[in-house]
From TrEMBL:
<dbReference type="Pfam" id="PF05336">
    <property type="entry name" value="rhaM"/>
</dbReference>
<dbReference type="InterPro" id="IPR008000">
    <property type="entry name" value="Rham/fucose_mutarotase"/>
</dbReference>
<dbReference type="InterPro" id="IPR011008">
    <property type="entry name" value="Dimeric_a/b-barrel"/>
</dbReference>
<protein>
    <submittedName>
        <fullName>L-rhamnose mutarotase</fullName>
    </submittedName>
</protein>
<dbReference type="GO" id="GO:0016857">
    <property type="term" value="F:racemase and epimerase activity, acting on carbohydrates and derivatives"/>
</dbReference>
Length: 103
């Protein structure tokens, strides 16, 4: 299993919208994430900065599975309205690299 850290940023003034949208994740999206091998996905927000920690069997395979999944496409369209940079699913590598951990 992989643990992947991601960083995204909200558009200015969209913090409350983001929190509201994430209060309930659609059941279809939850199922799609689990089908894609996601065991856990946690998001922290500090102002406009979002920090994700994802535990997944295979990050690249997850991205490929979700790229055109019918539950994920409308979710990503909604997120594109809120995020400063839209995720176009072109990248298969996480945006944050581990540089240190307490053993």
């Amino acid at each position: 299993m992989e643990t992947v850290a991601l960083h995204t940023r909200l558009r200015e003034g969209r913090e409350a919208d983001y929190d509201r949208v994430h209060a309930t994740i659609p059941a279809e999206l939850d199922g799609a994430l689990r089908e894609a091998g996601v065991h856990s996905w946690r998001i922290w927000r500090s102002g406009r900065e979002l920090f994700h920690l994802v535990e997944v069997d295979d990050y690249r395979a997850m991205r490929a599975h979700l790229a055109s999944h019918p539950a994920n496409v409308p979710w990503q369209a909604r997120m594109a309205e809120l995020l400063e940079v839209e995720d176009d699913y072109s990248g298969a590598e996480p945006s944050v690299r581990l540089v240190w951990e307490l053993p």
